[in-house]
């Protein structure tokens, strides 16, 4: 019986030694030390032994059991340690590897141009005003001297939501809303940047959604020469100190008189090139003295107050400034295009 136990012990210890994972050790434990294991079986036969042999065999059986148990425990510890070491090895950081570059984004060229224009007017004492893009017919048209059936409405084929609500076709409603808030008291001095919407067939120079920046000044004794001064400062700061400006008569329903402003071509200096269409001048924006009707509708006494307003397209400014040939580039999110404006 002792020989049998001796054999079982050696067999078990060998299997423990050869076990390569914790699962194999668990199997050894169950098969040798379990209730149905061979050692238990051997001990069941103790009854057949003489009273002298029993304690000897019993003690030896315990010795075998202890030997297997402690061999199991140390092998378990060894394997667990190996697992930890393996993990440490795998997860170690090689500090000599080159780092992954952090890719830095940049402002969208339109955002950059708008912020540049905003900063410029802020230094001249303007504040930035914003308003809703979903606008009422009243603020978008009527308060700006464009009553229903006014022919100039046709120039702004619009996205109507109901008969009285539409996507604003210009940022001018912000002017009307701001004037209203002043309750007939000046001065008003704002620029209003934002998106506007007009039904249009998109092409290289047209988009159904685009940006506008408008400016408005209302105060006593504001004159056309003040407008000219502000626009000239803008043109020089934006396109170069040696820019000249010229004002041409034009028509807008909400200003009287109305003008278009051209700047001398920054590419050819006035000699004529493809950018200025060989005229030496580039059209930049529309402006004029605020129509008395617009002032009155917003609660200002047009005998006491005068004002000027101007409006420009940031897309056009950016296209000219950066030589961009297609307005659609601004809205198609092509990174190859956008990444070119890292320093813009
Ligand atoms: Zn030119």
UniProtKB/TrEMBL annotation:
It is an enzyme of class 6 (ligase). It catalyses: tRNA(Phe) + L-phenylalanine + ATP = L-phenylalanyl-tRNA(Phe) + AMP + diphosphate + H(+). Residues 111-320 form the Aminoacyl-transfer RNA synthetases class-II family profile domain. Pfam families: Phe_tRNA-synt_N (PF02912), tRNA-synt_2d (PF01409). Its main location: cytoplasm. Its cofactor is Mg(2+). Mg(2+) binds at residue 256. Keywords: Aminoacyl-tRNA synthetase, ATP-binding, Cytoplasm, Ligase, Magnesium, Metal-binding, Nucleotide-binding, Protein biosynthesis. Its EC number is 6.1.1.20. GO terms for molecular function: phenylalanine-tRNA ligase activity. InterPro entries: aa-tRNA-synth_II (IPR006195), aa-tRNA-synth_II/BPL/LPL (IPR045864), Phe-tRNA-synth_IIc_asu (IPR004529), Phe-tRNA_ligase_II_N (IPR004188), Phe_tRNA_ligase_alpha1_bac (IPR022911), Phenylalanyl-tRNA_Synthase (IPR002319), tRNA-bd_arm (IPR010978). Binds 2 magnesium ions per tetramer. It is found in: Cytoplasm. Tetramer of two alpha and two beta subunits. Belongs to the class-II aminoacyl-tRNA synthetase family. Phe-tRNA synthetase alpha subunit type 1 subfamily. This is Phenylalanine--tRNA ligase alpha subunit.
